[in-house]
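Posting this for the archive.
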Amino acid sequence: MKNYLISIFAFWLALTVSNVTETQGQIDSQDQVARAPNIVVIMADDHGQWASEVYGNRDLHTPNMVWLAKHGVTFSQAYAVSPVCSPSRASLFTGRMPSQHGVHDFLSESAKFDHGWLANETFLGELLQGVGYKTALVGKWHATTNSARVQRGFDYWFSYDVAPAGWSNQYQHRGGVHFSDQGDSLTLDGFQSQRLTDKAIDFMDHRSDEPFFLFLGLVDTHAPFEGQPERLVAPFRNKNLQEVPNGAGSHLPARSAANKIPADHKEQLAQYYAGVEMMDLQIGRIIDYLEAQNMLENTLIVYTSDHGHMNGHHGLYGKGNATRPQNFYQENILVPLTLTWPRGIPKERRISQAVSTCDLHSTLLEAAGVVLADTLKEAINSPGKSVWPLLKNPSTNWGEYKFCELGNAR
């Protein structure tokens, strides 16, 4: 079976717009711009496919994620390029594997670790800007070592500033979080994902006539598993949660005591599940805004995660770096992926072919009508391919394997 892959990646999508030139990715006419879909990519952090109602989890109630699946395409074998965040995110934005772009593990956000990561890469946002898109990143970036620095390819930048309180502040789900608003420091209080969604909606609300690309990075399913709204957490405390196996051990040793099942496992699992439902509420806000502005029909919405997470699976807490040597357990590399574009793709379709992060990159480019010049295509040398053929014919011969990397492991 494909989902026993030795190696694998993550993600996703497809669509096509016609009449594109093959020079530097420029489009032929303003009519082309008018037809190009808006693109909204919502990427969670550490959200494993196992923790999704769309994929059969009976403990969760996520009506907005279910709505996306019912009105679009769900990929049952969507794999993260790496079971940690930085290399996986770098692969989405570059279309290249970790061994190509050079980010092999998570990057500590400190100046001493800044060695010009991705300096020679061409970013997804740059390619979309080249065909007339206005672009924004709101939330988690973490593909390089400084999220406060506005990155190439984004007209609007709202990410984290770790300088005032350290790297862990960006994962504080409630309370004061320090942000970078176009490079300027800003501290906001409240529930973080609500604040980020406010900024995402504000960007869309100030759009011009160009199509837009919005990347919204939510972190509710990232540790620490605490601070979610009590009304979301409480029901899980009193529930006999079914989806995490008890007593299963790992064939690899835990990296540290922090990667073993904690004493308050039930509370942490309740908080993790509440984080999934908190993100679902934000997805609903995005859908409602697009509908109210008559933009929903021509907006491609992608929901996915940078990789998965173990919350007691195999007797472990964490991801690919939860063990030594590192692991590629399914819970860490198999992620949710739904692709919804009411005007452009089928509804209620489930595709079992294995897709990856680099495939998502290629599909987003095709959705926007980007055709790379031969020299740029050769320079990027992406292993990804657009999933558009799968949307037209799910039985398309797609290939047997996807590859996943973490550090020196494949």
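Residues 1-34 have pLDDT under 50 and may be disordered. The CA atoms of residues 390 and 396 lie 6 Å apart.
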